[in-house]
Design brief:
Blueprint: E1 6-12, E2 15-23, E3 25-30, E4 33-37, E5 44-47, E6 50-57, E7 62-69, E8 72-76, E9 79-83, E10 87-89, H1 95-115, H2 118-139
Parallel strand pairs: 1-9
Antiparallel strand pairs: 1-2, 3-4, 3-6, 5-8, 6-7, 7-10, 8-9
Helix pairs in contact: 1-2
Length: 141
């Protein structure tokens, strides 16, 4: 690792999903807005939306996308740790399965809206957001 890179680790209850030691940029979607992290960034703790995380290593021409199911990010001493309920590397996402999940979530949302069940509406919206995030992460080249 050089002075322009840092370590990225994404952890879920199932263990480490992604680890990379020479990232030069990570883009996160926090509850406070989009944040770009580079080496020597000020310390940060932030809540994450269900969203994509983009990891870039300019020196080694790496650009990796991951779908992250909420959680939080902590950056200090050139180590970014993301703790999430779940996370998938874009290249490992089953696109057909994600499309099927999107369709199920859309149907569930319509049903919940028809009955005005706020709890079910929220659940369906979160499921839809997870599915759309997975689809987008897997589709972007």
């Amino acid at each position: 690792m050089d002075e322009h890179s840092f370590t990225v680790s994404i952890v879920t209850p199932d263990g480490v999903v992604f680890e990379y030691e020479t990232a030069t940029l990570v883009v996160l979607h926090t509850t406070g807005g989009e944040v770009g992290i580079m080496a020597n960034h000020v310390p940060l703790v932030a809540s994450l939306f269900i969203s994509e995380v983009k990891v870039v290593d300019d020196k080694n021409s790496l650009s990796e996308r991951l779908a992250v199911n909420g959680g939080f990010a902590e950056f200090s001493n050139n180590v970014l740790t993301i703790v999430a309920d779940s996370s998938e590397i874009a290249s490992e996402i089953d696109l057909a399965r994600a499309e099927s999940a999107r369709e199920r979530a859309e149907r569930a949302l319509q049903e919940a809206q028809a009955t005005a069940n706020e709890h079910e509406i929220t659940r369906a919206q979160l499921a839809l957001r997870r599915a759309v995030t997975r689809i987008h992460a897997a589709s972007v080249k």
